[in-house]
Amino acid sequence: MTDVDTAHLATRVLWAAFGLSLLFGFIAHRSRFCTMGAIADVVSMGHWERARMWALAVAVATLGFNGMVALGWVEARNAIYAMPRLLWLSALAGGGLFGFGMVLASGCGSRNLVRLGGGNLKSLVVLIVMAVTAFATLKGLTAVLRVATVERLFVDLPTGQDLPSLLAGGGLGSVPQLAVALGAAVAVLLGGWALWRPEGRSPAALLGGLGIGAVITGVWWVSGVLGFVPEDPQTLEPAFLATNSHRMEALSMASPLAYALDWLLFFSDSSKTLTLGIVSVAGVPLGAAASALLQRSFRWEGFGNVQDLALHLVGASLMGVGGVVAMGCTIGQGISGLSTLSLGSLLAVAGIVAGGLLGLRYQTWRIERMD
């Protein structure tokens, strides 16, 4: 394969990822898919529709990803979520920061991208601040703090941290066999729970759960199969084209925001090229805008007061830092990561949920104090 061939293939990867992110934005807007909203619905109203929607999305993505592992198309160890080093404190602490921040910012990164597509200018501010703080946590001041603190505590595993690899390392079977068995088991359990009650079978829940899960599976295929080159002509090594991590990627909304800002600010630098993450940051709000315009629900929104602005700024900052520390957000770790059956993703999601619950309690306390 020549350099021209890889360039053409990278372009195909970008267009495919952009199309899938458009679809993600459209579905998320139409179904009101939102992890923070799901937690808030359960806590405040005892309403489980969006929680079951999220569970169904994880079930579909898990079945899709591990089905590809069983077929030999992809390997979990090629994703950042399943590397042998388990950064357990980073996952828990970063997830907690992200979860608390998403409550203050009225939603996670993906939700704010969707709301931006619907005309919400508060989300634009949130996304800019989140991008800046995420970039600082990747390469700046908070990156130094990250490396010097939470990343000092970890566990080096003999294999990748995905469950099929761990169990295969213990002699319980081959990775493909375990992937299809575990993937199917998780999909049946989560999918069965999601569909057990009527609210999990509503049109919105089915659209969001099945649609988002299928999109995540599609992006895994685009990055891990379509974009995989056994021998890059430059390095003569295996390569995954058009990804910032140089590994197989699916959708995430934390680090990609930072990389999108970097690409915009240094556009004239020829070394700054478009990646799967960057085009997805553009595709999600455009897909949401298409849905909003078709529904005739597009309208401009802004901050109500200075306090509203302050809360969103703090929340955005916490999400930017926490999303990078945890190596993902509610989409990155919460669906893409979980679909690989990664231990780190389980810890990150636990941290996000705990942080979200704490954030909701804080918001309740703040409102009661004002009264």
TrEMBL record:
<feature type="transmembrane region" description="Helical">
    <location>
        <begin position="54"/>
        <end position="74"/>
    </location>
</feature>
<dbReference type="GO" id="GO:0005886">
    <property type="term" value="C:plasma membrane"/>
</dbReference>
<keyword id="KW-0997">Cell inner membrane</keyword>
<feature type="transmembrane region" description="Helical">
    <location>
        <begin position="314"/>
        <end position="335"/>
    </location>
</feature>
<keyword id="KW-0812">Transmembrane</keyword>
<feature type="transmembrane region" description="Helical">
    <location>
        <begin position="203"/>
        <end position="223"/>
    </location>
</feature>
<keyword id="KW-1133">Transmembrane helix</keyword>
<keyword id="KW-1003">Cell membrane</keyword>
<dbReference type="Pfam" id="PF04143">
    <property type="entry name" value="Sulf_transp"/>
</dbReference>
<protein>
    <submittedName>
        <fullName>YeeE/YedE family protein</fullName>
    </submittedName>
</protein>
<feature type="transmembrane region" description="Helical">
    <location>
        <begin position="12"/>
        <end position="29"/>
    </location>
</feature>
<feature type="transmembrane region" description="Helical">
    <location>
        <begin position="124"/>
        <end position="148"/>
    </location>
</feature>
<feature type="transmembrane region" description="Helical">
    <location>
        <begin position="341"/>
        <end position="360"/>
    </location>
</feature>
<feature type="transmembrane region" description="Helical">
    <location>
        <begin position="86"/>
        <end position="104"/>
    </location>
</feature>
<feature type="transmembrane region" description="Helical">
    <location>
        <begin position="175"/>
        <end position="196"/>
    </location>
</feature>
<feature type="transmembrane region" description="Helical">
    <location>
        <begin position="274"/>
        <end position="294"/>
    </location>
</feature>
<comment type="similarity">
    <text>Belongs to the TsuA/YedE (TC 9.B.102) family.</text>
</comment>
<keyword id="KW-0813">Transport</keyword>
<dbReference type="InterPro" id="IPR007272">
    <property type="entry name" value="Sulf_transp_TsuA/YedE"/>
</dbReference>
<keyword id="KW-0472">Membrane</keyword>
